[in-house]
Structures are given as C-alpha cells and as structure tokens.
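User: I need a structural model of Sulfonate transport system permease protein from Nesterenkonia lutea for a docking pre-check later this week. Nothing fancy, just the predicted structure tokens so I can convert them on my end. Input:
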Amino acid sequence: MTDTLYVTGASVPDATPKPPRRRNRLTRKVPGGGLLIGAVVPVLLLGLWWLATDVTGTFSQVQLPAPQAVFSAGLGLFESGELFEHMAISLQRVLLGFAIGAVLGLALGALLGLSSIADGLLHPTVGAFRAVPSLAWVPLLLLWVGIDEDSKVILIAIGAFFPVFTAIHSALRHVDAQLVEAGRAFGFHGVRLLGTVQLPAVVPSVFSGLRLALAQAWLFLVAAELLASSEGLGFLLTESQNNGRTDRLLLAIVLLALLGKLTDTLLGLLERKALKTWA
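Assistant: Understood. Predicted structure tokens for Sulfonate transport system permease protein:
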C-alpha cells in the first residue's frame, strides 16, 4: 500500500511504517553484484561439465558431449539459419499463448473473486479442469483443431490460464474488507472500485501468478512441439534424439532455459514498475 491513499481528491495517510529494504553487501558495494552472485552456480556447473567430459572422460560424447561440442552445434545451426527459426517460432508461440491464457485467467479470476454467485457456480468446474494433465488435452486438440499453429497456441494458453486464474481469484477473495469499505465510502463501486482499490491491493499476487503462468507456458510449449511440430525448440529436441545428436539436444535444453529466464526477467521488471505505481 502506498504511503497515501488518494480517493476522489481526499487523502488518508498510512501510518504503517515500511521496513527498511535489505540489500546484500556485495550488491550494494559492487556494481552488478547481483549478476555476479547469480553467475556463480552456472559457472561452477559449466566447469564441472567440462571436467566430466574433456578432463576425466567420465561420460562419452554420446552420453554427455563437451561444452565446446554443444557450442559448435549451435554455431552450425546459427550459420544455416535454423537456430534463429527454431527460437523465433517457439518464442512466438509462448508469448501468444501466454497472453491469451493470462487475459482469460485475469478476467475469469476477477469475476469469480468478486462474485459469490459466479464463484459458487463455476469454481468447482474450473477446479476440475485444472486437475487435467497437460498431455491429456493434446489428442482432443489435434482432433478438433489439427496440427497447425492454433492447437499449439491453445495448449500453451491452457497452461498459462490456471496459474493466473488461481492467483487473482484467491487474492480478490482475501482483499482487506476495510479497504473495500473505505473505497465505497468515497463513492467507488463496480469497475471503478475494482480498478482503484481491489486490483492495486492484489498486484503482488497477480504478478506471482503471471510468472508462474509464464513458466507453465514454456512447459506446455515443449509438450506441444514434441508431439506435433516441424519447427521449434521442442521439435529440435525430438529430431536430435532420433538422430543421436546429443549435442543439439543439450543445446535445445540450454536455449529453453535461457529464453525462459529472459522472459521471466522482463516480466520481473514490469512487476517492479507495477508495484511502484499501484502497490
């Protein structure tokens, strides 16, 4: 909650003191200290990977190719233009499916979170669909929609929908009743009350749901591309397995991890801006 709640020109000061923001000594004294700390474990894992393959020979090149072999495989795909195509189509599918699922999750979650009648009618049904495994939807989507882009985007949207719906539904059901009454006392009702009082109160929960939904979108992407696709990182996984190209298989896994982290970081930046503005 901000230090002052502005409602129709009036202000109500918030007497609750804010705890001091803690920062690690390294991140405070060293520029980019947070990045340095975060890079420690990946660098150690890369070093262990190199030792287990090139130095000790614990694993064969078929079981676990060396890091330079994976890099060479990526360079070959980059020079042929295939690498960019696989990454671009997968990123496009994830972002589109995530956007659709997040919007629907926000809308339905808000409806059920604000209406007791809608919650009683629809929540048991939505909860039952939430329990259906992701792969269970694939045969039905292939039968109804086919193997084109629509089926993949729909599957990803299903994966992104439920975390967002659950987060906003639960958060709105537990908004401070006194805060809502204060908004109504200043003449806010309906959509205006939702946008001015209730949604700002649940911003942290909403972004937690969005970040979880984004991770789910990447998981559902792989499920979609593993079963019916001719391009994308999931397809690269399957093709590499069938051809015995473990170097390309590991490359696809690394790229999925990097793209997932990149998109989560961008969403985290948006979250910080939203928290400063509303929460």
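Before docking, keep this in mind: The chain is about 75% helix and 5% strand.
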